[in-house]
Amino acid sequence: MRRRFLAITILLTTIGLTAPAVAKSYEPNHLKRLLETKQCPGCDLSSADLRGANLSYADLRGANLSNANLSNADLRGANLTGANLTKANLKGAKLP
């Protein structure tokens, strides 16, 4: 009984410590900078909602856009060199 309790405690502690890393999303200041200046190289925009955003000619070199919603966004002329677009939604996006 005691071992079972200890095992459950360890499991729940491990889940609690790793959950924030798994649920990580974009940095709000990075999103604000991108939308205001279109300059956001190296920014963390993971899981950001950028549906329909005008990002034409934006500097997104090396940005993390994994799991971001870029559906119907205008990315024409944007610099996406080295950007992480893993599992990003690009449906209907205007691409460079």
UniProtKB/TrEMBL annotation:
Keywords: Signal. This is Putative low-complexity protein. Gene3D superfamilies: E3 ubiquitin-protein ligase SopA. The keyword Signal applies. Residues 1-23 form the signal peptide. It comes from Allocoleopsis franciscana PCC 7113.
